[in-house]
Structure formats: structure tokens, C-alpha cells
Amino acid sequence: MNDQAESLRRLTQSSNEKNAKVIAVVSGKGGVGKSNVCLNFAISLSKLGKKVAIFDLDIGMANLDILMGLSSKYHIVDMLENQLTIWDIIEKGPANISYLAGGSGFSSFIQLNEELMQRFFQQLELIGQSFDYIFLDMGAGATKESIQFMLAAHEVFVVTTPEPTAMTDAYAMVKYIHLHDESKPLFLIVNRSETEQEGLRTLASFQRVAKQFLNKELQVLGFLPNDKVVIKAVKSQTPFVIFDEKAKVSLSMRRLVNEYLNDFEKEEERSFGSFIKKMKMLFKENK
Ligand SMILES: Nc1ncnc2c1ncn2[C@@H]1O[C@H](COP(=O)(O)OP(=O)(O)OP(=O)(O)O)[C@@H](O)[C@H]1O
Ligand SMILES: [Mg+2]
Prior knowledge:
Bound molecules: adenosine-5'-triphosphate, magnesium ion
CATH superfamily: P-loop containing nucleotide triphosphate hydrolases
Strand order of the largest sheet: 3-4-2-5-1-6-7-8
Helix content: 40-55%
Shape: globular
Distance between the termini: 32 Å
CATH topology: Rossmann fold
CATH class: Alpha Beta
């Protein structure tokens, strides 16, 4: 579909206009469960009737599509190089979720020439009114590209396991983001905790350290248990909240999402435009 037809179609839907909130899901250490947390959080919101998209921005190791049993035809690079619109490359996943793949070629993103960069932002601007939430699944740690997305996002979810190595790396990430933007809302999720006590203790001590050394108030979202269901769900390429909605981890995810909507999702100002504006600024600065 060309841009014009799509704009017309969207104009007729303008009563339904949204203003997407962009949430980057990050970790310090790799393999702590970011992609699973991102995907299942997003799907849970979608099941509640929210319009949700997830962008796979894990450069080089994009695998959200595998977790959903999809194989994506197009990537962001195709959109830029082959004159496709963003709507051409967005695919539908389970529970009506929309999915956009970064693709491995995405690593060259930062070297895009001015024209392609403009095109990227133009296309991005087209979708802000169509979603309530856009989740960015980031690679582990911080790269030059991923930092810009994190800093532009409205909120950042930091995922860690209770292991000291994961916590140390997650703390380094929190510190890094905080040094660049003190006001960024940071949410903490502990994944794979063995017991409730371990989950609560990990959350509390992480929060305490951030407060003490950075004077940063982290929002504690909660913890998810270590649950074999996640491994089974990954093997069957189905998000765990769909694979077994009564599993411990799925119930915990539901609690987490409810907590987010009830406690943190106040009717505050949100603007997709501010995300795009920050992205443009950050890219200009880093050129
Ligand atoms: N709550 C959990 N219970 C049990 N196993 C889990 C849980 N969360 C994640 N895992 C296991 O950890 C693996 C890695 O998860 P995932 O791919 O989501 O991590 P990631 O942080 O996105 O990794 P990467 O840094 O490579 O992107 C999963 O395939 C699963 O086997
Ligand atoms: Mg991942």
C-alpha cells in the first residue's frame, strides 16, 4: 500500500487516534530473559485490548520472530532500501500484536545517509497514532545505536536475574542511562527468581543501591519465577502467556502488567512526537 492510501485510510479512523508510548526493554548481561519478558508483557497488554507493537532491535541476534513462530519477510533495512512503507513490513503476531524486525543488516543503521535517515523517521512518524504501546526489544548491554533508542524512549524496563553478575551489569546500565537522563522513568523487573523471597529481596536491594549511590528512584514492577514452562514455550515457539496461561510465570506476568497499569500508568502526558524528536536530535549529535 502506498503512503497516500494508507494516510487516507488512517484519516478515516482518526477518532481512534492514539499516541504511542515507547518502552525500551534492556538488560546489562545477555540471556536474562529480556525478549521473553518484552514479548509476553506486550502480548498481555494486547490481550487486554491495547494496541501494541514490538520492534526487534537486537542487532545481529534478532529472535522475537522465532519466539512467536513467525519468520519475518521484511526488515527495517528493506523498508529503507526498497522503498517499502512501514505498514508493508509490520507483521501480525499472536494476540493481534504487531511486529517489526530490525534484521541483522540493522547494524549499519547509524551509518545511514541523511536521505535514508529522513525516510526512517518519516515512516516512524506514520505509526505513532496507531498504537498505545511500542516495545523495543534491545540487545544486551549498550551499543551506540541502542543507547539512542533507550534515551529517546519514554520509559525503560530493566530486566535482571537475581545472579550477582546480572545485577552488577544491570546496575551499570541503570547508571549509564541515569547519567545521560536523570528524569528517565526506569522500571525494574527481576526474572527467574527461585522463590518469592529471593524475588522481593533482589528487587529491594537493587532499588536501595540505586537510591543510595545514584539518588535514583527506580519503579519496582515485580519479579517472575524461574519456570520450566518458559523453556517449553520457547521450544514450541509460543509466548508463555499463551502456551500455558495458568502457569506460575504467566500468572506472575499478569500481576506485573496489572500493577503497571494500575500503579504507573497514570493519565500523564505522552507524545510519540517527543520520541521522534529526541531520536532525531540524538542521531544528529552522534553523526
Ligand atoms: N522465567 C524464566 N524461567 C525459566 N527460564 C527462563 C525464564 N526466562 C528466560 N528463560 C530462559 O532463558 C532463555 C533466554 O531468554 P531470552 O531470549 O528472553 O533472553 P534475552 O535476555 O533476550 O537474551 P539476549 O540477551 O540473547 O537477547 C530462554 O530461552 C529460556 O530458556
Ligand atoms: Mg533477546
